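INTERNAL AUDIT FORM
Audit reference: QA-55
Scope: verify that the stored structure record matches its stored sequence.
Auditor: D.O.
Record contents follow.
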Amino acid sequence: MNPTLDLILAHRSIRQFTAEPITDIQLDQILSAAQAASSSSFLQANSIIRVTDKALRSRLAELAGYQAYVAQAAEFLLFCADYHRHCEVVPDAQTGFVEQLLIGAIDGALMAQNALLAAQSMGLGGVYIGGIRNNPAAVSEAVGLPHQVIPLFGLCLGHPAQAPEQKPRLPRALVVHENRYQTELDRELLAGYDQQIEAYYQSRSSNNKQQSWSGQIRGILGKEARPFMQDFLRSRGFNLK
């Protein structure tokens, strides 16, 4: 083991923060780490909106599903897929392809993970905010995103005011395949994991509930997931071809 692995393997989402600010030096290092992430074809097809205006933070917290920590965290970063910059450089650029959307989403996630790991290395904590996509058009308007820029997710950062238990991950045998995908699901292994998750939810120090992983997935995938996204993406010049 080494400090980097210790940091990665100790990951927990932090949703409660102290009032202590993140210093300018810390923020500069976090953003430098984000920009150091790999970039497909060196397109650098992402932008980050640092939201410091309190009223705007409150508005984004509301749009993300009334998640109070969006307003309360020391820093809130909005990660975007961005091809507006490219079209400014090359006015006749061929954009709108699904592959470009994937690049923007993947590279944005790589940037954000670098940012969070950098923050955690300084003793800070954070949580990703996928709820930004609950109202992508309103979020885009609120922060002035031009055509061919879409909000992907947010990242709250700050000094932790909690030490939550670590959520168990799926058994590796259900995730890692060798050479070929193993289509036959190990039901016994899954049942054991469901029991582990039920025990975790019942024993954790906050937000106790009675639910297995399979039950949680059934609830999430048993209904439409943001069905408005396709129309939104196309309205912003994405996912056209």
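Auditor finding: record pair retrieved intact. The chain has a mean pLDDT of 96.
Action required: none
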